[in-house]
Design goal:
The protein is α+β, with helices and mostly antiparallel strands. Helices cover 58% and strands 17% of the residues. The strands form 4 sheets. It has a 5-stranded antiparallel beta sheet with strand order 3-2-1-5-4, covered by helices on one side. It has a 5-stranded antiparallel beta sheet with strand order 7-6-10-9-8, with helices on both faces. Strand 2 and strand 3 form a beta hairpin. The chain is flat and about 150 Å long.
Length: 831
């Protein structure tokens, strides 16, 4: 629940309470204003506060909102304290509406919604009786009538006629409907109680006890009030306080559920003591309060679950009365807890119990491994009897018992020798000190030491006890035990390292999520934002804080005109599952539109809650490049069509016309060869000149299509020829190496178009052209000293050059500040 909602509810409650108190203490007909004010505040705020607790705990459950509505609706009854006729009549007639809301909330508990037709019928009867029924009674009931015991009350503004008989008949009719409805409500409570699990009963019991008592007292009040008004009022006042205790009972039920979690310590103790088959399941069932809880063990060999007897167990399907919670250890499933769905209310407690069960199972496995190691060590120690020595207080060996191979010196040298002659000095000195202390004090002395026997270091434990004036030393080798202890310490260190590695892996995943360029947003199934990564923060300009969390995804990120479409898409994925892929306009905090291709899929978070993952990629620039590419292709096609039409026109108007004229002249000459040889010779001369001009026009046309010198001799000579024909001085700086043929052609036309533009528009006095190769790129520059101001997007010539250069993955740049000339630079990758 948002803070703004909380503040609004509390503020409204305070406002209504203030108005109610003002009406009570200014009323002319309230005999006990202090008591009325007290009951008004108790009933109102017990339900408002209880409703806010339920609302905050489960925002998606309507029960909290219904309880809050009960507290707010109590205010309607306070209007009957008014001295104004209309306000008094509204409160007097409709003051019982809170009972209908209360019955609605109670029958919606604990899921927050009504379920069966019977429940809908009960709630409908309650609302009809306390609205329409109350209104009909108000038409014929005069509050100032002596039977109502309120002579100072204002007049009934709805009164049509004062008719106690009609009122009695209507009340009897409503009682006929109300009493069975109340009995049916108790039946619903009983049915729900029998179907509830033990954990759910901890929550239901206080509420059903107080609510059931309330409904029972309500039924009694209806019956008694028809017999004795005074007795009915007494039952009613008792009913008010029992009614006000319902929210307190609800909170008490929650507290009981929380206190049940305190059993986790007892559970851990029981799990530590559970060694017999079945004890683990019984301890979990007691802690969770689910006597039907089942424990399914994971069998890695068969990749399935089984019970203690090895019989296969199928995990329950989602949506049923039972749920399965996995018990994992080091990321591996070891068992599954199959429990009643009501335990989902205490999800953290169930997960903690599952973790404890996993730890217990892991400890059982470790203890079994350790027991095997101890059994091996015990067998080894049994096979090699303990060494026993009797020694005097000065450390002289008097007797011994043990295997020859366990002695530091041969047995024949041991008796009569001193411990300082047998053992290292540091070990021997401690032995003598402990022997004397044991002889003097009678206490058991013990210490560990290490000896090398036959060059092999061996660990020993010495126990020294007093035996008369001497001491008995029992030497027991624990080399294998110490080795096992070191192995356990090593295993413990490995487990700790695994835990640290897991933490590092989680940190790595978080870092990857935040550093990925993809836009990631996690939402609830309803589409409300839970969190999102840094890439989406940078794109949207919104921080992942409380200002965004809890808001609908489409309201935060999607353009207004596309929000309904995105909302439907998310709802469809949440309901049907699967994966959806879309493309929409997202909007940043500053209002900038960005085109995003995104997809969404359902998943569960680390607590098992259902979520939707939205993964997107900003394709705004890609779309812009695609649009530019389409426009470029369209310009290329258009330029090709224009060029073909120009060639056709030039051929038709130039060379074709001259060739037609040449054909006519040749026919005339043929006709005059015999009759007029001189005239025929003159015509043949004209035909020769016409043919020469046609050939020159064809060469000029071919040069415009693709200069022959460019193919034959390369870019340098072609540019020199181009510069020679230019009316302006052209300075050339050319790299002597040949370039790939497509690049030479593109460079030639860039220079040709640039020189044409300089001559037409630049008003320049000179032009400089340079071509060089730098780091695998061919760079073409044309610079003039003209007026500048060239716009690459304003004419078809420069746009065509841009298309030609970019078609070869090149870069085309125009620098043309007004008054500073123009510099055109084209770069081509040439390997």
């Amino acid at each position: 629940m948002r803070r703004s909602t909380l503040a609004a509810v509390v503020g409204l409650g305070l406002l209504l309470s203030g108005i109610a108190l003002a009406l009570i203490f200014t009323s002319n007909h309230e005999e006990h204003p202090e008591f009325a004010a007290f009951t008004q505040l108790v009933v109102t705020w017990s339900f408002i506060l209880g409703g806010l607790v339920a609302w905050a705990r489960r925002p998606d459950n309507d029960f909290g909102r219904l309880m809050t509505a009960v507290g707010m609706s109590v205010f309607v009854g306070a209007l009957s304290e008014s001295n104004e006729s209309i306000i008094f009549t509204i409160g007097w007639v409709f003051g019982g509406i809170f009972i209908a809301v209360f019955i609605h909330a109670l029958l919606a508990f604990p899921r927050g919604y009504l379920e069966t037709r019977l429940i809908y019928a009960i709630v409908s009867i309650a609302y009809v009786e306390l609205t329409l029924g109350a209104f009909l009674v108000g038409l014929f009931d005069d509050p100032t009538n002596p039977s109502n015991d309120c002579p100072s009350c204002p007049a009934n503004a709805f009164l049509v006629a004062d008719s106690p008989t009609t009122v009695a008949a209507l009340n009897a009719l409503m009682m006929i409907l109300a009493v069975p409805a109340l009995v049916a409500s108790l039946y619903v409570f009983r049915r729900r109680w029998r179907a509830a699990s033990v954990p759910l009963r901890r929550v239901l019991a206080p509420v059903y006890l107080t609510a059931g008592t309330t409904l029972l007292l309500l039924a009694v009040a209806l019956v008694v009030s028809s017999i004795s008004e005074r007795a009915g009022q007494i039952v009613f006042w008792v009913l008010v306080f029992v009614f006000a205790s319902v929210p307190i009972a609800f909170i008490f039920g929650l507290v009981r559920g929380r206190l049940a979690r305190a059993g986790m310590g007892q559970l851990m103790l029981e799990l530590g003591q559970a060694h017999e088959p079945g004890q683990l399941r019984e301890a979990l069932a007691r802690a969770l309060g689910d006597e039907n809880l089942r424990l399914a063990y994971w069998i890695p060999e068969t990749q399935s679950f089984a019970d203690l007897d090895g019989s296969p167990i199928e995990l329950p399907e989602p949506g049923g009365e039972e749920l399965a919670t996995m018990a994992e250890r080091d990321g591996q499933v070891v068992a599954a807890l199959i429990h009643h769905r009501s335990l989902e209310e205490d999800r953290l407690f169930v997960e903690a119990a599952a973790a404890a069960a996993a730890l217990a199972l892991e400890n059982e496995r470790r203890l079994a491994a350790l027991a095997e190691a101890q059994a091996r060590n015990r067998a080894l120690l049994d096979a090699v009897p303990d060494l026993m020595f009797r020694m005097d207080r000065d450390g002289n060996y008097l007797e011994y018992k043990g295997a020859r191979e366990d002695l530091a010196v041969p047995p024949e040298q041991l008796i009569g020798s001193n411990v300082r002659d047998v053992l290292p000095s540091d070990v021997a000195d401690r032995f003598v000190e402990d022997i004397r202390r044991a002889v003097d004090t009678g206490k058991l002395m013990r210490h560990d030491y290490r000896l090398e026997i036959d060059g092999v270091p061996r660990d020993w434990e010495a126990r020294i006890v007093k035996a008369g004036d001497d001491a008995v030393v029992i030497g027991r080798e624990f080399t294998e035990q110490k080795r096992a202890q070191l192995e356990l310490e090593r295993l413990h260190a490995e487990l700790q390292q695994r835990h640290r590695d897991l933490e590092h892996e989680r940190d790595f995943i978080r870092t990857v999520v935040d550093s990925t360029p993809s836009l990631l947003c996690l939402t609830t199934p309803g589409g409300y934002v839970v969190r999102f990564n840094s890439s989406l923060e940078r794109l949207s300009g919104r921080a992942d804080d409380d200002l965004v969390k809890g808001e609908a995804f489409w309201d935060v990120f999607i353009a207004p005109e596309e929000r309904e479409e995105v909302q439907r898409a998310l709802e469809r994925v949440a309901e049907e599952g699967g994966r959806g892929e879309y493309e929409n306009t997202w909007v940043t905090a500053s209002g900038e539109p960005r085109r995003v291709a995104w997809s969404t899929a359902p998943l569960r978070d680390d607590r098992g809650d259902p979520r939707l993952l939205v993964c997107g990629m900003d394709i705004t620039e890609r779309k812009r490049h695609e649009d530019e590419l389409r426009r470029s292709r369209a310009r290329i096609v258009e330029a090709s069509d224009v060029e073909r039409r120009r060639l056709e026109r030039n051929l038709h108007d130039g060379a074709q016309q001259r060739l037609v004229s040449l054909s006519l002249v040749l026919r005339l000459a043929q006709a005059k060869i015999e009759a007029d040889p001189a005239g025929a010779d003159e015509l043949l001369g004209q035909a020769s000149e016409e043919l020469g001009q046609a050939l020159e026009e064809l060469r000029e046309l071919a040069r415009g299509i693709h200069p022959a010198v460019l193919s034959d001799r390369g870019l340098g000579p072609a540019l020199e020829a181009l510069a020679a024909r230019s009316p302006l001085p052209v300075g050339l700086e050319l790299d002597g190496d040949r370039l790939p043929e497509p690049i030479e052609a593109a460079a030639y036309y860039v220079v040709a178009e640039a020189l044409t533009n300089v001559v037409k528009y630049a008003e320049a006095s000179s032009v400089a052209v340079s071509i060089e190769r730098v780091n695998g790129r061919a760079i073409v520059e044309i610079a003039d000293d003209g007026v500048g101001g060239a716009d690459p997007g304003g004419g078809s010539g420069l746009r065509g050059l841009v298309d030609r250069v970019e078609a070869l993955d090149g870069l085309f740049v125009v620098e043309s500040a007004p008054g500073r000339g123009t510099r055109i630079r084209a770069e081509f990758p040439c390997g």
